Amino acid sequence: MDINDLSKDLAPIISNTMADVVEVKLREYLKKKSFKPGDALPKELELAEALGVSRNVLREALSRLRMLGMIESKKKRGMVLARPDILGAFERVLDPLIIDKNTLQDIFELRLVLEMGLAELLYINKTNKDIAELESIAKKEVNNDNSFRIKNEIAFHGKLYEMSGNDTLKRFQIMLLPIFDYVVTLEKKPTRGLVDHLGLVEILKNGTVEDFKKGMQAHLQPHFDRLK
Amino acid sequence: MDINDLSKDLAPIISNTMADVVEVKLREYLKKKSFKPGDALPKELELAEALGVSRNVLREALSRLRMLGMIESKKKRGMVLARPDILGAFERVLDPLIIDKNTLQDIFELRLVLEMGLAELLYINKTNKDIAELESIAKKEVNNDNSFRIKNEIAFHGKLYEMSGNDTLKRFQIMLLPIFDYVVTLEKKPTRGLVDHLGLVEILKNGTVEDFKKGMQAHLQPHFDRLK
């Protein structure tokens, strides 16, 4: 029996710092007491005493909640609960150099899933003005060299997500794009799908939502082929 | 000219705490120096001195990075860069009671987009064993009362995402589901799509990826109708 077997059977005890513990306790407390955005929190000194921790440890935990946008400090009112930026923390960790390979692959696939699933929202919300803007983005791509490719991809797909009328989704996909591109460039030669951006614009103008799904599938086919 | 116009023209200056500033500086430093997971960070005292801040402020910022899973403490080696849990922080803020209405709606739509876009991954990765398990979950639903509905939804759709072979996606959708359900229950009476879970299983057994997309669309139709 070697050490690896042993560590498999005896799962390592995760050593939480005091800040970890206090952070969890604070979040549980806010939830249990049904704190709403705008509600004032007890003062630091009271919280530290109630938790039996030093003010430094409490401040560490509060700083985490502040980073998540869950609390903010208001003049005169002190700390209040705030509406968190749900993607803020996600954005901070999306660095291809520190994310493991499996997760990079997962994110690559996640973006494919989003692109494929976008059709319904697009067809509910698209306007002629949107389509005209999208077309002018797609037309700019012709004759552009490869260094502009990523910029164009961001512009075109960013506009598509904007047309979906969903700000969270738009921001989310902009975050995912560099990871997606990182994975793509790890592969050998980039291949292009049978339907290009101008082809997708044409479908949005005259085709049905089913046509668009087929067009997007053809556009992304080289990426799906990689997964097989 | 009222105060609202003024505050629109003069965007409020965001008052960053010292910890905000130090956190950004640390992340920039790690990126610039191409730190990789496992690399040891300089000691706290050195970092605090280089940044010209107190150790307490530095610890606040480090605590944030620790929460994001970007750094961890190792015996003898001190702080090292770690592979962050990319969804950990996201999970912390996904509370329907503190998220604003527009973002709740965005998340509702995001889940619809994921469901609609999942077909390709499912058809690449599905196995007979998976389908049998999915079927047994769907069969358990019959005659269940409404209180089990959410549990069944989680089980069924969780299994679907598991079948996609994408762990990040699976975890992501499990996080989104309570928000999705919260939005659904805000509406009046729940309506059911023309294709139920057993119908989707049947398609996975004998239908094409196109059939599955149509089936999922019919399954989710009542939700899409809400968006119009």
UniProtKB/TrEMBL annotation, chains A, B:
Q: Record's InterPro entries?
A: GntR_C, TF_FadR/GntR_C, Tscrpt_reg_HTH_GntR, WH-like_DNA-bd_sf, WH_DNA-bd_sf
UniProt KW keywords:
DNA-binding, Transcription, Transcription regulation
GO terms (molecular function) for this protein are: DNA binding; DNA-binding transcription factor activity
Q: Which SMART domains match?
A: FCD (SM00895), HTH_GNTR (SM00345)
Query: Where in this chain does the record put each HTH gntR-type domain?
Result: 16-84
Q: What is this protein called?
A: GntR family transcriptional regulator
Provenance organism: Pedobacter planticolens
